[in-house]
Amino acid sequence: MQIHDIRQRLRELGARPIHEQAILKAWTRGWPLDQCHRDPATFFPASLRAALPALTDELAGLAGAQSEHPSADGSLRLLVRLHDRQSVEAVLLPRDGVCVSTQVGCAVGCVFCMTGREGLRRQVGSAEIVAQVRLARRYRAVRRVVFMGMGEPAHNLDNVMDAIELLGTLADIGHKNLVFSTVGDPRVFERLPRGRVKPALALSLHTTRADLRAALLPKAPRIDPADLVAAGERYARETGYPIQYQWTLLEGINDSDEELAGIESLLSGKYAVMNFIPFNAGEGLDFRRPTLDRAREMARHLHRRGILTKLRQSAGQDVDAGCGQLRAR
Fold first, then answer.
1. pLDDT of the chain along its 329 residues, tens only?
2. What totals of helices (H) and strands (E) does the chain contain, helices first?
């Protein structure tokens, strides 16, 4: 289901724009629909008021928790059942964040990621994306939404942008706390600057070598890493948010001194943050993460050269909720 379907349904029930906004605001924030005004009996048209219980059930059916998997670090992996009984995974993160899915499966096929091993099954509708945030708010406060779950957001761009606009206007989430993660589809750099809500951008880099990137991300657009960084830099300067470059650390593959020199060359002077993410194991994935000492050494090396670098330990690794581990099981 799409957000425009909900708007159309409300209009058919007699909602005017003020009622439509009130209902959508309540829904995205996790409030009861009939409590979004101090006097719903006089605020809503009778036809809309009578339909609120059924509408509440219908919206709740967009994304429901099929199973819960709590982690020792405070995160929570949810197996989310969609309206057609397809499933995705969402992860409630420490410090009021949620990671949502934008596709059932993924077509990019990153070789170190579990999500794409069975390919793409279908797109997740814009309302289903927002419904994952609404579901997360049943458990705890949500002030940050990262589009880093199952799927490549750029391959579902219209739905993701519609969800971002609603979340950034009615859901009490700051624009820079909406993080669009992508392998670097050129359409992203055309569409995001034109949006009413401009999210922060996370670019999956993983290597400074074009040939290695093509091997690691076999179905990603063939963009030279230097060109990807140049496009990211333009967006960063326009929005005022630094680009988050994602780099899954794979022992013996992209953890060399040569790669460090390449990162220094690409990101020196850029408005950027390098996120090193040690590889998270998955069934059938024949990779290893570098030692913690090596990962720390790499981060320190770039820091000393003026490149802000963070060594990130994915949340929820003990329940397979880390980066690259989501697969709707």
1. 899 999 999 999 999 999 999 999 999 999 998 877 777 778 889 999 999 999 999 999 999 999 999 999 899 999 999 999 999 999 999 989 999 999 999 999 999 988 878 789 999 999 999 999 999 999 999 999 999 999 999 999 999 999 999 999 999 999 999 999 999 999 999 999 999 999 999 999 999 999 999 999 999 999 999 999 999 999 999 999 999 999 999 999 999 999 999 999 999 999 999 999 998 887 778 899 999 999 999 999 999 999 999 998 887 776 766 787 677 66
2. 11, 12
Is 89 known to be catalytic? yes
Contact between residue 69 and residue 327 where contact means Cβ atoms under 8 Å apart: no
Catalytic choice (99, 106, 113, 323): 323
Question: How far is the C-alpha of 71 from the C-alpha of 69, rounded, in Å?
Answer: 7
Those residues with Cβ within 8 angstroms of residue 295's Cβ, 6 or more apart along the chain or in another chain: 249, 255, 276, 278, 289, 311
User: CB–CB of 127/84 below 8 Å?
Assistant: no
Catalytic residue chosen out of the listed positions 20, 36, 89, 152: 89
User: What is the per-residue DSSP string for 24-52?
Assistant: HHHHHHT--GGGSSS-HHHHS-HHHHHHH
Residues ≥6 apart with Cβ < 8 Å to 31: 25
Helix axes 126-136, 17-29, angle to 10 degrees: 50
Q: Is 323 a catalytic residue?
A: yes
